[in-house]
Structure formats: structure tokens, C-alpha cells
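WARN retry 2 of 3 for item q-0093 after timeout on previous attempt; input resubmitted unchanged.
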Amino acid sequence: MGKKYYVVWAGHDTGVFDSWEECKLVVEGFPGAKYKAYPNQEAAIAAYRGESGDSGVELLRAIARRPVISVNYDAFPEIDRNGIAVDAGCRRNPGPVEYRGVNLNNGEEIFHVGPLEEGTNNLGEFLAIVHAFALLEQQRRTGVTIYSDSKTAMAWVRDKHVKTTLAPTPGNEKIRALVSRAENWLLTHTPQNHVTKWKTEEWGEIPADFGRKG
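OK item q-0093 returned
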């Protein structure tokens, strides 16, 4: 069976997603969710543009494959090459934020969500870790290391609660809903994987980095 692409017109996030796991996370629990699978990216983009009226420019940017940062793993044998690196990128803070996860063994981007309006980088980092937890649980993969470069997000995951100063607005309703869902996931599940701080000073930028500083 070939790779499928999923169009989501109504969900916690909308657009074209390149895996069922990612699609499921944004449609599950959303009242009236509307989505459909397509056999290739071109058909999915055409279907999304046809109904949404979107120009497709931002959509193409959102699903474009990001360059994966190269790490000399031979020099750092303590890095779990079977692990997942996660990171978030925010154009402003608060502002549009997106997050993703990358397989360290082959550089494959395994999930990518966003942009989510009026979010913060820390919220994106938190969602990325929980997304990785949930994905690994679905895949029944235990003992996999999740790497994050955010001490704040890791602390929120440990406490199973987000301590953000972001004031609720209609614009950030979507990301707040995802955060609430992630907190609930942590309260109702026992992760079988662990989160470790990516040693940026020693190893360089985390491979899931979006390349947005400041």
C-alpha cells in the first residue's frame, strides 16, 4: 500500500497531513471533523485548495520538507540514534507556531503540526513532546528516547500541567484546545518512553530545529 496524504478541512488544525497518526491527532475529539485520504500529495493539495479557496502558497510552505540538521553521531555515542527529536518554531511570541518530530536514525520528519495562531514557542515545544509520546504509544514502541531542547516544556510534561501566561483569546482557542487535550493525555496515560534534554552546547542544534532564532 502506497503512502497516503490526508486533507483536514475541519479539525483542531487544518491542511494537508502526510500520516494518519498526525491526521488523527487533529481530528479526534473535534465535533464535526471533516477529513479525507488521498493517494498522493498533488491530489490532496488540489482537494484542499478546491474547497477552502486557499491560494496554496502557505499550505505548500507548511508541508514542505524542512532541512534536517546533520549530527556526527560517531562523535557522540551517547545519543540514542533510534530516538526522536522534537522542536517548535514561532514567527513571533506569541504568534503562529508549529512543531514537528524527526527520526534520528534516518532524518525523516514523522509529524508536523501548524502553524497554530497566537501560540508561543514553549506551548509548541510542550505539544511536540506529548505528540511524540502519543505516537510512540500508538506504534507500541517502548524505551525510545525523545529529545527536546526546552527545559520549560520538559518541566510542564513532568508536572502534567502547562504554566503559561498566555491570555485566552478567540485567536488562540485552537492551540489552547490542543494543550488541554495534551494535559489530559498525560493525566490518563503512563508514557513508556522518556524525555531527555538535547545538549545543544555540545551536540549542536537539535535535528528538528526550524532555524528560527529571536
